[in-house]
Amino acid sequence: QVHVVESGGGLVQAGGSLRLSCAASGRTFSSYVMGWFRQAPGKEREFVAAIRWTGSNTYYADSVKGRFTISGDNAKNTVYLQMNSLKPEDTAVYYCAARSAFLVRPPYGSYDYDYWGQGTQVTVSS
Fold first, then answer.
1. How many CA atoms lie within 13 A of 96 on its CB side?
2. What digits encode the pLDDT tens for the residues 1-19?
3. CB 35 within 8 A of CB 49
């Protein structure tokens, strides 16, 4: 069984920063790609960022490029999301996700991931 646990959410003013952390664990689990998604009230879950450990390729949604940075430690199945210049529209529950199998296409879809955390709330006040 694989457990995915996020931390680091909270309340911040517009223009501020937050850093989310996520760890995936399981007796024989090794991640191939890890990502972040978010879901605002009344909206569908959307892709935010992902990192493919092979080649350390990173992927970002257009809405967060230049403001958010994903990083992590492959050996520890740990990923971080540094969020700067936060906007009220970034308010959402942020979910961490992980996949262990090889994936050819960029990991933008929620269907690309097998394991999910419970989510952490990020609220940006104006």
1. 29
2. 899 999 999 999 999 999 9
3. yes
